[in-house]
Amino acid sequence: MPLYEHVFLARQDLSQAQVDALAENATKIVEDNEGKVIKTETWGLRTLTYKIQKNRKAHFVMLDIEASGATIAELERQTRMNEDVIRYMTVRVDEHEKGPSVMMRKSDRPERSERGGFGGDRDRGDRGDRGAPRGDRPDRAPRAEQEA
């Protein structure tokens, strides 16, 4: 049978118990249609890149599924009707990842200070240190020497 990864985002105002109930409901839909849920991962409440239906955060849940295309179509149909789910995506994969997914592995992700971003002791590039000499162009003469 084909293998799938199904990820859905639930509204931010749901409790963890309600999110778990949504995952159990999805598992029940798959199993009722002769499919099998291999693994369920709850990634927790995470901040979204942009607002979705007035939500700034969402609960992320991933299911590894072994099922037919008809089963996935039914799962997506029922997920689409659920008001608590704000987004979902199902992807067919060649094989499921062994162990925890990348989202669950903290050791693989760089620390926040190593990733860059704003602030900290980061190299400010072209705009940060305006008075520092640059190696790619000659130094300018002071303004008084230019006008003379």
UniProtKB/TrEMBL annotation:
Q: Where is this region: Disordered?
A: 92-148
Q: Name one GO cellular component term.
A: cytosolic small ribosomal subunit
Origin superkingdom: Bacteria
Pfam families noted in UniProt: Ribosomal_S6
**Keywords from the named record:** Ribonucleoprotein, Ribosomal protein, RNA-binding, rRNA-binding
Which InterPro entries does UniProt cross-reference here?
Ribosomal_bS6, Ribosomal_bS6_sf, Ribosomal_S6_plastid/chlpt, Transl_elong_EF1B/ribsomal_bS6
Query: Is RNA-binding among this UniProt entry's keywords?
Result: yes
GO function terms (MF aspect): small ribosomal subunit rRNA binding; structural constituent of ribosome
Q: Single Gene Ontology BP term?
A: translation
NCBIfam families, sorted: S6
| Homology family | Belongs to the bacterial ribosomal protein bS6 family.
The record's listing under HAMAP family reads: Ribosomal_bS6
Query: Function, please?
Result: Binds together with bS18 to 16S ribosomal RNA.
The protein's name: Small ribosomal subunit protein bS6
Question: Which source organism does the UniProt entry give?
Answer: Sphingorhabdus profundilacus
Q: Which gene encodes it?
A: rpsF
